[in-house]
Design brief:
The structure holds two protein chains of two kinds.
Chain A (H helix, E strand, L loop, with lengths): L11 E9 L2 E6 L3 E6 L13 E7 L2 E7 H4 L12 E7 L2 E7 L1 E9 L3 E3 L7 H4 L1 E7 L2 E6 L1 H12 L1
Parallel strand pairs in A: 2-11, 5-7
Antiparallel strand pairs in A: 1-2, 1-8, 3-6, 4-5, 6-7, 9-10, 10-11
Chain B lengths: L2 H28 L4 H20 L3 H18 L7 H23 L5 H14 L2 H19 L7 H5 L6 E9 L1 H5 L4 H9 L2 E8 L17 E8 L3 H7 L7 E8 L17 H9 L1 H18 L12 H28 L5 H25 E3 L1 H18 L3 E6 L4 E3 H22 L3 H6 L6 E10 L2 E8 L6 H10 L11 H6 L22 H10 L3 E7 L3 E9 L4 E9 L2 E6 L3 E5 L6 E4 L3 E6 L2 E7 H4 L13 E7 L3 E7 L1 E9 L13 E6 L5 E5 L1 H6 L13 H7 L1
Parallel strand pairs in B: 6-8, 13-22, 17-19
Antiparallel strand pairs in B: 1-3, 1-4, 2-3, 5-7, 8-9, 9-11, 10-11, 12-13, 12-20, 14-18, 15-16, 16-17, 18-19, 21-22
Classes of the chains: A mainly beta, B alpha+beta.
């Protein structure tokens, strides 16, 4: 995905950018099912702090994670603008609580840079690349990695 | 339709045919003279053979053929049904099932048992039959692959056999033509068997004006001289048997009233007219004859529809949504606090009823009778009896009881195990039975019934009952209980369910497979059910499995725990108690017990065990739900309040997340919020170890002390 594929008809990727823990992240648009307003969830016993609970998504019970807490950036403070990004990967559907959703980002594949090699931490595990947008940097979230953690964290 | 899907269909049909076979065999056992049953069994074997021929499953075909040939001798009353023969038929049925399975999975069947049974079957075939059957074998094969083409060699091989004369009365119904059958082809097929004369009976031919081109008025009388058995004639008519009146009779060879070859006299108008006016009665007669024929010969199953299970499940899910949606709408409308407009409430009520109806109907699609499951057990009983040298029979009661398909599937293994156990450990040997004044043949009784929203399945044997002294001895020996432990009878019985417990002093190749009743118990528990055991020395042991009617909907109490709404299955609750301060006693720093009719029962705070911040209520308030748990017997679960009792749709937590300890699933309430469904057993287990006075001493704990 990160291979530079130069050419006149270079593939464009669309991302939805959002902020969590005061950092800017994005998810590939194809992975996102919908974006919902935050509604109170049903808490689950014996789960880590980043698992907020479960929510009813048209009859399906989906877990909601606090993305900021999951990346070790602290709990997302209550705010009117908080939204839940419902995303699907590998047959499971999850919800991610984020502070706010910003915009749709359309970038060429070549402008996605590999994540700089840093000392590993929770957040870095789940970041597949970064995109430079003007002054700021947007982190591309690897949903699969977020999901993979889930079992281990909750068990 | 690809060849593969046709093949799949064949195997699906095989399963049904095998069921019919087993069913037929067991009714044959009761009444060996009932030719309808014998015919049904024959037909089942024959149809399997026919289908197998089309797929070139030669082994299956040849086995089915031998089986069928012996069956045919019973049918033609050349062979008397003895107990021994019945036993062989059962085993042949089992073998046939094995062969079908092997063919389906494309693996090698067990040649040894096949050869053994074939040999026994052959022994029932006289020398003549055998010779015939060998040359006959290949021919029948061809015949099955292409029913209309019967090979010539047949006649040559049968030359020595006596010619028999059959008179066949054949009256097709309109449906026969409508289905595209052609009598001429049938006659051609008959003609290949021997010398055929056919005379058409045109007596019912109506006047030209009244002629209905779609009707069927002609009938034929056929005379066939052949050396073939009657079966072969039936085979030719096999596909039209239910579409015509057919009467095949063997005539005395001595005085053959030959049919004339003269063209039939067309009935004159005069005799025709009264016949026509009298036709209603004739038609009624014909109808009667037909219904007789249907009642006897072609008692086919009710029409059914094969549907992909996934589609049904999708429908069930959607209907679950509908129920939730209905509850939400009701709640919203209530919230609006509209003036009492009767119309809306009425409509809403009707909507609710309709939604329930749809749900029940949809759930019924998944429900299936336990019959096939029970029938499978007859084989287990047979095999187990054989392996242990005991005599046993299976009696089934209530096999039309319907249970969710998943339950049936997941019950097969535990039930097999229990039935095996019942034969292996439950029943005594014949001589011991005789000594006890019992019938030499032991009885395993399998029964199913619906009682108060649950399914009860009982496995009862009429054996010696549990040997409690030995069970206790074994349990002590294995360190499962302390030697000085005083256990009640039912507690001893329940030791059987402990992991690693097996009473068989010698490991038999039957039950001693390293799995015990604990596996059975877990499997049943996984289905939301429970197993219990009762035993009377000298007269047998009964295991009772209680299961929820369906896995998709459950009756539950809506409760609140730590300000959260949750649901607890009603089935697990024995009683609810609103405790007075005097009834509760503290034990240690956190422990609490309550006096329930003279016994101290530990109190478990659900919120605490789930790791939730306790609600606003003080200790002593709230409601206690008395549940019976496996790990520590009677336990009182403390919750804040009970709000409602309702049917909830079960939603899996695991499909999108992992399993949560103490929570079995989730459901969606009327307000669209999710409520967790508690698993009392697990909730209690979450309890950090604390000194209690359990009603039943948990033997596992004692092991630690020892």
């Amino acid at each position: 995905m990160l291979d530079a594929n130069e050419g006149p008809t270079e593939a464009q990727f669309e991302f939805i950018t959002f902020s969590a823990g005061n950092q800017s992240f994005c998810l590939e648009i194809m992975q996102i099912r919908e974006i919902r307003r935050w509604t109170p969830v049903t808490k689950l016993p014996h789960t880590p702090d980043d698992v907020l609970g479960v929510m009813n998504l048209r009859g399906a019970v989906i877990p909601i994670f606090d993305l900021s807490a999951r990346f070790g950036l602290g709990e997302t403070p209550d705010n009117e603008r908080n939204v839940v990004i419902v995303a699907a990967a590998g047959g499971t559907t999850i919800g991610l609580l984020v502070e706010s959703v910003s915009e749709i980002l359309s970038v060429a594949k070549s402008s996605i840079q590999e994540t700089p090699d840093m000392k590993s931490d929770a957040a870095r595990q789940a970041i597949v690349g970064v995109i430079s947008v003007g002054e700021s940097m947007v982190r591309v979230v690897n949903l699969d990695a977020v999901l993979d953690q889930e079992g281990g964290v909750a068990a | 339709m690809s060849r593969n899907s046709i093949r799949d269909t064949f195997f699906e049909e095989c399963e049904e045919l095998l069921e019919a076979l087993v069913e037929g065999l067991s009714s044959m056992e009761q009444d060996p003279d009932d030719m309808n049953v014998v015919n049904a069994v024959f037909r089942a074997v024959h149809s399997i053979k026919g289908g197998a021929g089309a797929f070139a499953l030669d082994r299956l075909v040849s086995f089915a053929h031998t089986f069928e040939t012996v069956m045919d001798k019973v049918r033609s009353q050349d062979l008397k049904v003895t107990e021994e023969l019945m036993h062989l038929f059962h085993r042949s049925g089992d073998q046939l099932a094995d062969l079908v399975e092997a063919a389906r999975d494309e693996r090698e069947p067990n040649a040894e048992s096949e050869a053994a049974i074939l040999k026994e079957l052959d022994s029932y075939l006289g020398e003549a039959d055998k010779d015939d059957s060998f040359s006959f074998d290949a021919v029948t094969l061809d015949f099955d692959a292409a029913p209309a083409e019967v090979d010539a060699p047949e006649d040559s091989s049968e030359e020595d056999a006596a010619l028999r004369r059959f008179r066949i009365h054949f009256k097709p119904s309109a449906a026969l033509y409508a289905n595209g059958h052609e009598p001429l082809l049938l006659f051609d097929a008959l003609a290949e068997l021997g010398e055929l004369r056919a005379v058409a009976d045109l007596s019912e031919l109506p006047e030209f004006d009244a002629f209905d081109p779609n009707g069927a008025v002609m009938s034929w009388t056929l005379q066939l001289e052949t050396s073939e058995p009657e079966t072969v004639l039936h085979e030719i008519f096999e596909f039209v048997e239910s579409l015509c009146e057919l009467d095949i009779r063997e005539e005395d060879g001595a005085a053959p009233p030959a049919l004339s070859d003269d063209p039939p006299d067309l009935p004159g108008l005069a005799p025709l007219a009264p016949r026509e006016t009298g036709s209603p009665s004739a038609a009624a007669e014909a109808a009667e004859a037909r219904s007789d024929a249907r009642g006897g010969e072609a008692r086919g199953p009710r029409p059914t529809l094969r549907v992909d299970l996934e589609r049904v499940d999708r429908l069930i899910n959607t209907v679950g949504e509908l129920i939730i949606n209905q509850a939400m709408i009701s709640q919203r409308i209530e919230e609006l606090e509209l003036p009492a407009v009767a119309h809306l409430t009425n409509e809403l009520e009707a909507y609710k009823l309709l939604a329930r109806d749809i749900q029940e109907g949809v759930m019924a699609i998944r429900a299936q009778p336990v019959k096939p499951l029970f029938q499978r057990m007859s084989r287990i009983v047979r095999e187990a009896a054989e392996a242990t040298g005991k005599k046993a029979r299976l009696v089934t009661v209530g096999d039309s009881t319907e249970v969710d398909k998943t339950v049936i599937e997941r019950l097969a293994d535990p039930l097999t195990h229990m039935v095996r156990n019942a034969v292996d450990h439950g029943l005594e040997k014949s001589d011991a039975r005789a000594a006890a004044g019992k019938e030499a043949i032991g009885t395993i009784r399998l029964s199913a019934s619906h009682r108060s929203g649950s399914v009860f399945i009982e496995i009862a044997d009429d054996g010696a009952g549990l040997n409690r002294a030995r069970i206790l001895e074994k349990a002590i020996e294995k360190g499962l209980v302390l030697p000085e432990a005083e256990l009640s009878e039912s507690e001893i019985d329940n030791l059987l369910f402990l992991p690693g417990f097996s009473t068989a002093s010698e490991v038999s190749n039957l039950s001693g497979r390293g799995v015990g009743m604990d596996v059975v118990k877990n499997a049943v528990a996984a289905l939301g059910g429970r197993v219990s055991i009762t035993s009377t020395p000298g007269s047998g042991t009964t295991f009772t499995i209680v299961l929820p009617l369906t896995l998709a909907v459950m009756d539950g109490f809506v409760i609140s725990v730590a300000d959260q709404t949750m649901v607890i299955p009603i089935a697990s609750i024995i009683e609810t108690i609103r405790p007075g301060q005097r009834d509760l006693h503290a034990v240690g720093t956190k422990g609490m017990v309550i006096l329930v009719r003279g016994a101290y029962v530990p109190v478990v705070d659900v919120a605490f065990n789930l790791g939730l911040a306790p609600g606003r209520k003080e200790a002593g308030e709230g409601v206690l739900l008395l549940v019976s748990t496996e790990s520590q017997g009677l336990t009182a679960l403390r919750v804040e309040a009970i709000h409602d009792q309702r049917q909830v749709v079960i939603k899996s937590l695991e499909s999108n997340y992992v399993a949560i300890p103490g929570v079995s699933a989730a459901t969606i309430l009327g307000d669209g919020k999710i409520a967790l469904i508690l698993d009392p057993e697990e909730v209690v287990k979450l309890q950090p170890a604390a000194p209690y006075f359990p009603a039943i001493t948990p033997p596992k704990l004692e092991l630690h002390h020892a």
